[in-house]
Amino acid sequence: MNRRYTAPMAWMIGIDEAGYGPNLGPLVVAASAWWVEEKNAECGVRNAEFHSNTAVLAAAGRRRSAKTCLYRRLAKIVSRAACDKKLAIADSKQLYKPGLGLRQLERGVLVGFHGSGTLPANWSTLMARHAPPHPFYADYDCELPIDTTREEIADLSTRFHAACGFAEVKLADLRVRLVYPQEFNDLTTHFGNKASALSHVSIGLLRETMQMTLGLRPGLVRVVCDKHGGRNRYAALLQHHFPDVWIDTLAESGPASRYAWGPPESRVDICFRVKGEAELPVALASMTAKYHRELAMRAFNAFWWSRIPELRPTAGYPGDSRRFKAGIVALQKELEIDDNCLWRWR
Questions:
Q1: Which of 30, 63, 143, 292 could anchor a disulfide with 285, C-beta 3.0 to 4.6 Å?
Q2: Burial 188-217 (b: 16+ CB within 10 A, else e)
Q3: What is the DSSP string of 270-335?
Q4: pLDDT at site 38
Q5: What is the DSSP secondary-structure string of 64-100?
Q6: Which 8-state DSSP code applies to residue 2?
Q7: How high is the pLDDT of residue 214?
Q8: 102, 147 Cβ separation under 8 angstroms
């Protein structure tokens, strides 16, 4: 039967990470979830073909993507590049360079938290659910924001909220998962490699995010994740985290891998793609992950610097991380800090 149905676009979720490569500090994975109205939008998909016709499903997905591009909807307030007049939401690598400050990252992330219902006043509030019981973080705190003002965040938040209302868009959730070295080492040992560990953390965060969003409002779900290392196949990982549904594989290739499950009215479509940050939900997730990673490294460096003032801070990446570790080895032994709590082996 050639039956067409109408439905709103519903949820758009983006997931990305920061800190995949370093030896020191946490891996951070973040998700941003957006509710996007698309009233009376015909998906143009035959109900009987929805589960089996990959070409038709892909074409429908492209039409929905064109109609629900958040950069287009929020063009009056959001910029794809660093900007003083608008809110920059882009790949964190475009907005943050060491030594240039956190302002562009901070504006987007804190406005995002404000838009989703929270605005942390300090490090301890922001990290309350994420800081581990390691001595590096126990006594650290700082006021937020660091490189902008609460007045600027409040003004941008007001403008952002108004633009979202006009565009029939709502940022419903910003969610973060920090994986510190000991857990990272355990995960890579259990799953065999870094890419698999990252995939399990990311898909676990997706499941958690979907439980929250679909609990608020059922509907279609479109998910975009940046690719995990060189992995092209994610079906088994998705099936592990979503055991109650059958995962349909739509495409698996270098540029993108796509999967879907569920009935037409609540279909979940997920794409792991190269340069996923080109889509706004992934870009905000990238910024959120990077912001948390940078703040965690500030706390980490402050712990060691307070005890070894001549020690230069580190971003934790290979090469420089070995210089830093050599500089703290005596104090680390004196404080009886186990290497497994400090150093990521892969």
A1: 30
A2: beebeebbbbbbbbbbebbeebbeebbeee
A3: EEEETTGGGSHHHHHHHHHHHHHHHHHHHHHHHHHHTT-TTPPP----TTHHHHHHHHHHHHHHHT
A4: 72
A5: HHHHT-HHHHTTTTEESS--SSSEE-S-HHHH--TTS
A6: -
A7: 87
A8: yes
What is the β-pairing status of strands 27-36 and 10-18?
antiparallel
Is the Cβ–Cβ distance between 198 and 17 less than 8 Å? yes
Give the integer Cα–Cα distance in Å for 2 and 245: 25
For residues 260 and 248, the answer to whether their CB atoms sit within 8 Å is yes
Instruction: Give 42's DSSP letter.
Output: B
Give residue 11's pLDDT. 95
Residue ranges of the chain whose pLDDT lies below 70 = 1-9, 39-68, 116, 133
Residue type, 33: A
Question: Could you report the per-residue pLDDT of 7-53, keeping only the tens digit for each?
Answer: 456 899 999 999 999 999 999 999 999 999 875 333 333 333 333 34
Token pair for 116: 């989703």
**By three-state DSSP, how is residue 218 classified?**
coil
User: Which is it for strands 27-36 and 87-88: parallel, antiparallel or unpaired?
Assistant: unpaired
Given a contact cutoff of 8 angstroms between Cβ atoms, the answer to whether 287 and 293 are in contact is no
Sheet strands (E) in 164-215: 169-179
CA separation for the pair 336, 201 (Å, rounded): 29
From residue 87, how far is each of 50, 99, 104, 172, 286 by CA, in Å? 38, 21, 8, 18, 15
Phi (first) and psi of residue 16, to 5 degrees: -155, 170
pLDDT of residue 39: 53
**Which of 313, 319, 320 has its CA nearest to residue 297?**
313
Query: How many whole angstroms separate alpha carbon 179 and alpha carbon 310?
Result: 29
Note the pLDDT of residue 47: 34
pTM for the whole structure: 0.89
Pair 288, 96: CB distance under 8 Å: no
